[in-house]
Amino acid sequence: LDAVNRVLNQEYQLAFLLSPVKAEMVKAIADAGDRMPRKSTYFYPKVPAGLVSHRLV
Q1: Domain total for the chain?
Q2: C-beta neighbour count of 21 within 10 angstroms
Q3: Is-above-0.70 flag for pTM?
Q4: Cα Rg, the chain, nearest whole Å
Q5: 9 lies in which domain range?
């Protein structure tokens, strides 16, 4: 892992390695009406800023 190598090479003092959040967990939290901490999820591709969608049917 790049982060581990950078710590071992003393480029960085510390690295955090986190398990990814599964989509099912995000859905369960949303269904419960709860919120996840900011920046705790990363989704790609991102929806372009300013994009407006409308249901056609």
Answers
A1: 1
A2: 13
A3: no
A4: 18
A5: 2-31
